[in-house]
Amino acid sequence: MLKVDLTPEMQSLIDAYDGDLEAAAQKSGVPLNMAQAFVKLPFVRDALRAVELRDYKKRQKIATREDRQKLWSWIMDNFAHSPDIRMRASELLAKSEGDFVTRTIHENPDGTPIATGTQIQIMQIDMDDRTKLMAAKIRPAVDFLNLLN
Phi/psi of residue 46, each to 5°? Predict the structure, then answer.
């Protein structure tokens, strides 16, 4: 890569640049027509793009969990929003707080867990076995209801 020495005027323009060439020219004391001529030079243009990228990265912010929770709380409490929007904000807030927990347990027909540690047993159960299994689980409830009648 070719190293180019910038003139003091070019450097002061680049240092003052914040996305607005006219304002940078005025801040740096460089005449606007000279600043416009500098921008036509590829190495000055690249330096200005680097400044824009650096500034963009400084401005870029990723919302923290607390920021999102504040936003969802504000939306939930703001009656100007429709009820479905407020309900969705309430749901997202509850999820972020861990109010909803989904737990899935996979079991063999005998009630032992399928997943043990990192081992997983894959079982093939035909329809008749599934029906028998469901009946075995439902049978105690049906017998109890029959006793009541």
Answer: -65, -40
Residue tagged 């049978």 (tokens)? 139
pTM of the model: 0.40
**Contacts from 129-135 at CB under 8 Å and sequence distance 24+?**
133/109
Cα 127-131-132 angle, rounded to 5 deg: 120
Alpha helices in 6-126 (DSSP H): 8-16, 21-28, 32-39, 42-59, 65-77, 83-96
pLDDT digits over 18-30, tens only? 888 899 999 999 9
Instruction: Decide if 96 contacts 68 (C-beta within 8 A).
Output: yes
Bridge partner residues of 116 (DSSP): 119
61-83: per-residue pLDDT in tens?
A: 777 888 889 989 988 888 888 88
CA 108 to chain centre: 37
